[in-house]
Amino acid sequence: MAASIETTKTSAPDNRRKKQLTVLAAAVGVALAGYAAYYYLYASHYVSTDNAYAAVEVAQVTPEVGGTVGAVLVKDTETVHKGDVLVRIDQTDAKLALDVAEADLQRAERKVRGLMATDGSLAAQIDARDADERRAQAQLASAQADFDRASIDLKRRKALSKSGSVSGDELTKAQNEFASAQANLVAARATAAQAKANRSAASGERASNAALIANTSVDDNPEVALARAKRDQAKVDLERTIVRAPVDGIVAKRTVQLGQRVQAGTPLLAVVPVQDMHVDANFKEVQLSNVRVGQPATLEADLYGGKVTYHGVVEGFSGGSGAAFSAIPAQNATGNWIKVVQRLPVRIKLDPAELAAHPLKVGLSMDVEIDTHKQ
User: Fold this and answer.
1) Buried b vs exposed e over 343-352: b needs ≥16 C-beta within 10 Å?
2) Which residue ranges of the chain lie beneath pLDDT 50?
């Protein structure tokens, strides 16, 4: 009887322990089933990372002309708007260059007008040279006739002188007249050749002058157009001595100082367009199988903690991982190799209204969660 009572007392705790273990196992099973249901129905459709940072396309401000800085009108952290004057470069050299270009343009215009006026004068000169050439040809014909007559007279007198019909004086006179006619003929030929050459020179001079003004007016003449382009460039260079903000934003990285001598392309400062901020979220490659452009995302900034939630959409994916674009990329094809899970930057576009209400700065840490339900 005593043994039976003792056995009953021993089995009672064992039964309670079995019941407790059964209940615990059931609870664990329910929990696992619940977690599995939660994961497959909800959690598996979201990917998240805390390796994310606010970013923006920073506008670098550089001068387009060189010179001495005459004024710096902004400082770091200052808010500026597109078109605001940031830096002024001394305009003395640019104004002198513009004056020279203006003078060159006026000189070119006057030169072209002179060439057009000269064209009429050269045409008249050609007409005069034509008349000179015709007169020289007439004189040549007259000299040729006189030479022919003197030649015939000389031959006749030489023939008659043998019979004594012509005196020596007459023969001498005929010889002199022949020599004079011959000299006049040579002179007439030279005059005709000179007249022809003068006419050709006048024609060439007019053709050369016409080539400079052919099919153009003063305004569209190439020489005037070139001078005008140089004048316009000088105007542009003068305007570029005033450096303006290319976008709305906040001034950062200001290195320019008053009196500094700068060259075209020298970095002066940067303007950060905080209103166009986006987030670069670096997801592990194993998280991206279901991530697509256009999927919604929620974000939190460490700056505001959990008090502010941003909403955005996936805008695009980087062309390569950070390791691929590093200064010294990994050489996985050589030596011992250990596989490392890579991260790929995903660009998240933020809601402009939320961004305006709660501004961000470049490089701030973010937590990102993407809803991958939408495929």
Assistant:
1) bbbbbbbbee
2) 1-2
